[in-house]
Amino acid sequence: MLLSHLRELFAQTQFMRFWVSRLAGIMANQMLMVAVGWHMYDITASAWDLGMVGLFQFVPALVMTLPAGHVADRLHRARIFATCMMAQACVAALLLWATLTGHASRELILGLSVVLGLARAFQMPAQQALTPLLVPREMLQRAIAVSSSGMEMAVISGPALGGLLYTTGASTVYTSCAALMLLAFTLAVAIRYDFVPARHSGSWRDVFAGLHFVWQRKVLLGATSLDLFAVLLGGATALLPIYAKDILHTGPVGLGLLRAAPAVGALAMSLVLTRWPLDRKVGPRLLLAVGVFGLATLVFGLSSSFWLSMLALAVTGAADNVSVVTRLTLTQLETPDEMRGRVAAVNSIFIGASNQLGEFESGATAAAFGAVGSVVLGGAGSMLIAVLWLRLFPELARRDRMDKGSSVV
């Protein structure tokens, strides 16, 4: 049954082209993040600077994401995605040049992190709003789950491959990243769909329309803000170089495996959701998944065993995948196409805040309380958020089905 669903989806030529393009692009991005993190830690040996890499990506993404969503509703979304792939290819090429010529520095890495943040600002709304245009509506939830599977495959293989290649030198990783980004760009340029230019104006009211749309729909607001605060507090990605080097006593290969572990769990869960989509008790299961995410993060923070740490990270990935698929499916089903870019931009702000700002928060608290204290506090905070959201967003807690208007009886 699972294979038949996959064959049906991949028979959609444009969706398949987009899926492979995203696979190559995300794999390259994950390899790049491993190399940049290890490179920065090699240069500065500073937890604060690891956090600053996340902050320098987050700030421009935060500033530009709402305008980027407006652009995604007015221009060809596949072309926007392709342009973002080319921008990241240029970043990898510049890092390659700097490494080969001895010009790699803390300042250069932080400056290029700004470029990566800008690329992310335009990439995320375009790619999220593009998927519903490439598959029939009845296939959307499975398409999102399969897209998530591809993303997790890239997140598994990307960090592991990046860590392995880094043992031969940072230049090898940067060369591979540039090549994969160029492949993603080529495939994205070839994507075709029935593009209808938007009729809305370029006013600031239209730019902020997505934010107003989400604010008025408490189920969407609850689901997106739940992910924001849970991952903001519970994310330990920025501290993995410290755990790999100083706590678990492994090298770049071990770092790559640790970064890949959440994606292993997420991939397994996405395949489960492809075969058995969430049909009932969507809201309660979402809140439970966030609680499990926090608990697994706490276990990782206290672990001094490499394999227990890998297992805990895999559980965080599986739990987070439930949140991702549920949030994206709810958003796409309840948003008209002419608004999807701007609503996806709001979603991107939440995702960006939970990831990039979460990396800064982890680096800052680690500088104050140590890496273990930072992760343990974050995991406990994520569990607390899941409990609070039961009271703050009762519509979400009662949500039964993905379809609008259904509540748990």
Describe the protein.
- With 409 residues, the protein is an all-alpha fold.
- Helix content is 82%, strand content 0%.
- It contains 17 helices and no strands.
- It has helices at 2-10, 13-44, 47-72, 77-101, 106-130, 140-166, 170-189, 204-207, 209-216, 218-234, 240-247, 252-275, 282-302, 306-334, 337-369, 371-392, 394-398.
Reported for the largest beta sheet, the result is: none
Number of contiguous helices: 17
**Which series of helices and strands comes N to C?**
HHHHHHHHHHHHHHHHH
Strand content: under 5%
The rounded Rg comes to 20 Å
Tell me the overall shape. Answer: globular
Low-confidence stretches: 405-409
Query: What structural class do the secondary elements suggest?
Result: mainly alpha
- How far apart lie the N and C ends? 30 Å
Number of strands: 0
Helix content: over 70%
Mean pLDDT: 80
Short structural description:
The chain is an all-alpha fold and 409 residues long.
Outline the fold blueprint.
Elements: H1 2-10, H2 13-44, H3 47-72, H4 77-101, H5 106-130, H6 140-166, H7 170-189, H8 204-207, H9 209-216, H10 218-234, H11 240-247, H12 252-275, H13 282-302, H14 306-334, H15 337-369, H16 371-392, H17 394-398
Helix pairs in contact: 2-3, 2-4, 2-6, 2-7, 3-5, 3-15, 4-5, 4-7, 5-15, 6-7, 6-12, 6-14, 9-15, 10-13, 10-14, 10-15, 10-16, 11-12, 12-14, 13-14, 13-16, 15-16
